[in-house]
Amino acid sequence: MSRLAINSAGMDTSVIRLALLGTITGLCLVVIVYLLTDVRQKLGELASSPTDNIQWTLSQLEVEFLEFQLSVQAAKLLSRTNPLPIDSPNADLAEPLSQSLTHLRKRYDILYSRLDTLSQAEHYSNVLFNPSLGDDFGTLQRLVKGFAPQIDGSDAGLIDAMDTMQRALTQVRPSLRDILSYSNLEFVAQSDIARLDVAHVLKRLAWASSVLLGALTAMVILFRSLAQVSKKRLQQKLAASARLETIFSTSRDAILVLDPRGRLRDANRAAEEMFQLSEGEIDGLPAGTFLRREGASGLLGVSGADLFQSCAQGPKTGYRLLGRDRTGSSFPVELSMDVSNRAGIAMLVCVVRDISHQVASEAELTASRDQALAGERAKARFLGVISHEMRTPLNGILGTIDLMAEGDESAETSTYLNVVRTSAQTLLDLVNDVLDITQIENSDVLIKPAPFDMDQLLQDILASETPRARTQGNSLRQSGASPLGWAIGDATRLRQVLLNLVSNAVKFTRNGSVTLDSQRQGDTVTFSVHDTGIGMSAEESERIFEDFVRLDGAIALQIQGTGLGLGISRHITTAMRGTICVQSEVGLGTTFQVRLPLPAVQQIHPVRDVDQDDILTAPPQRILLVEDNPTNRFVARRMLERDGHSVTEAENGKRGVELAQKAPFDIILMDVSMPVMDGVEATAAIRASPGPCQHTRIIALTAHVGDDVTERLQAAGLDDVIAKPIRIRVLRQLLIEASSAAAPPTPGARHPAS
Amino acid sequence: MTLPDAVVGMTMDELEALPVTEFETSTIWTEGPQVFRGVRMVDLLAHFGIESGTLKLTAANDYSIDVPVDSFTDDGAILAYQRNGQTMTLRTKGPLWVVYPYDSSPKFQSEVIYSNSIWQLDRMSATE
């Protein structure tokens, strides 16, 4: 900027210098034109001479005067020697005298003519009649002309007059000399003046020409240097401009030039691509149409004033806005900009970078960090909770087993077994909960709606929780005036949710009351579980639906739980398109409310389940048990043998396949995860090769549970699936089904009544 | 000195019989415009068949000049025998006067022309 200012100042002085020189040149030209006119006039005067040869003409006067005087003298001499006869004036003169008189008359005429010429020629008369000369010339002229009568008269008269003439001429002779001297000097002076005059004009002309030449030379030099400076500057500017143009057009960032009204004046190709602008619409496009920012009420177009304002303190970088292209889609951009103040017009130059990727990766990074941290926290919490929750029932089991091993009172055995079963059941519940939440979180909760008896369901829940309520000194009851009847919904999931709520209420209440309330409004049923327990604060209320949340109260009171129950309940409720909420006050109690869409349906005749209390056993079967774990093998074998079945064991899939090739079996119980050959592979092998067991019913035993696992195993050729741990009741049920499917039902066997 | 090949005398009548030219001009030796009548020098020279060489003109006072024949032009000098309708005497620069039309062009205003303007002319001779 400063360099340019200096340059332009240099230009200014140059211009002033030029103007000065121009003025000088102009003045010189005027002077020269004037002088040239003068010179031309003088030259004209010189070219046309105003006079003949002055010296000659003047000297001719004297010559002719003297010639006349001489002719007079000669005639006088002749007249003395040949005197004219007095008496005969008409007599012929002597020949020489006559010739002399003729010569005299001719000379007189010539002199007369000369005098006439000199007096008539203006050039001469001016000098000759000059007052400073007196009237000498006039006198001379008059004198000579005065002789005319005698000259023109008779010879005798002339001869008589010659004496007088002679005297007069001699007398006037010095005067003639004076006249000629004076005239000569005068003419010389005049000639000098004229010459000097011309010389003077020429000298002035030479001076003016020299000055003009000097000025012109200076101008030429100045012009030349100016031209060189301009040329150099132009070249520099062209080079710089070409470089800038290349930068402008090849930049991957969009470059925008905006005027103070925020209207687009220029944009590079990257900008056209970024905002999907066509070349024609660039000029005059308001910045707000393609640059926006987050305002109080949504996205606002950016104004020129905003942008110029942010550059008020100098160049601005890292200014984040939202770009919007033709299609209306927005993307984050980052602006670097500055105001270029050139030629009095402020222009804003913005370099715009699309930072979608940057923002996205930043967000992704933040999300994955948060996720990792959350995962870490969840894992720590999970391990903490699980290890604590497992310790309690394990303690029950191991402690009781110790008691049983040391003591021999068989009377207490059933009590001990009860503790062991309860503890083991608690452990199983714990594991189920964990699996449940894993499944629920990993995929959508599968809801299987079917008609069910709601009143029955509520009664079952209350029945199952009554023992615990009694232990805690709580009264557990159901309010709600009318029976709810049948409805369509997932009874299993509903049971899970309500059982969880009731069980929680019972756990957190001592010597109080727990009430289960239910009300139908149209298709929606609202269940409320109210307790008079320890309650919780508002902050706690907000957290309890998260996974693995165990409140301080629960820990202090040594209340068991994984902290998963309410999380599972929330997931299930949401999946069933219902809501769950809580109201609580510390020390007063808590009310959970679940609202679910459960449309009422007509009562369906209940299919009576197998009576749980009836112990049914299948007829003795030949069973191949393929299981790698010796404990599991032992337990299963004892269970089956007690019911009278014969059991053949195989410790892996390969061994199982070999045995199945040798002898026929009625049922094959196949563990899934095994070394050497797993259950799926073994099943496929048995089914593939013709042998005694090719079509034998194969039941999978697996610790992996879930519908997808079941489907996968069935696809592999397994007929049924039993989830571990194996419970005797389930095993019996399956064996009954298997035997009845394999052979016509035995008349003695009991079947589910219809 | 060589003797002339031929000597021709001319009377005024013979001169006046040649083609006549008349013009008005001022001269540096006279006052006011003068009307001169005479014969063009080119016509006179043509009359005598003189095409080149030098013409020697001599006046009554023995003033003489040499003029190249080819310097006489169609618009140039005349040999005047009348001034303002009068024949000229010796006193009035007669009998003959070589006069140029001085006013018609500056080329007739040089000292050479003035020198050639010989008056009181009474002889003329041509040499190759």
UniProtKB/TrEMBL annotation, chain A:
Gene3D superfamilies: 1.10.287.130, 3.40.50.2300, Histidine kinase-like ATPase, C-terminal domain, PAS domain
Reactions it catalyzes: ATP + protein L-histidine = ADP + protein N-phospho-L-histidine
Modified sites of kind 4-aspartylphosphate: 671
Family matches, as SMART domains: HATPase_c, HisKA, PAS, REC
Keyword Transcription regulation: no
Span of domain PAS: 240-284
One Gene Ontology MF term: phosphorelay sensor kinase activity
Residues in Histidine kinase domain copies: 385-600
Enzyme category, top tier: transferase
SUPFAM superfamilies reported in the protein's UniProt record: ATPase domain of HSP90 chaperone/DNA topoisomerase II/histidine kinase, CheY-like, Homodimeric domain of signal transducing histidine kinase, PYP-like sensor domain (PAS domain)
Record domain Response regulatory: where: 622-739
Key words, A-Z: Kinase, Membrane, Phosphoprotein, Transferase, Transmembrane, Transmembrane helix, Two-component regulatory system
EC number(s) stated in the UniProt entry for this protein: 2.7.13.3
Residues passing through the membrane, by range: 15-36, 205-227
Key word Membrane present: yes
InterPro entries linked: CheY-like_superfamily, HATPase_C_sf, HATPase_dom, His_kinase_dom, HisK_dim/P_dom, HisK_dim/P_sf, PAS, PAS-like_dom_sf
Top-level taxon: Bacteria
Entries under NCBIfam families matching the protein: sensory_box
UniProt name for this protein: histidine kinase
Taxonomic lineage of the native organism: Bacteria, Pseudomonadati, Pseudomonadota, Alphaproteobacteria, Rhodobacterales
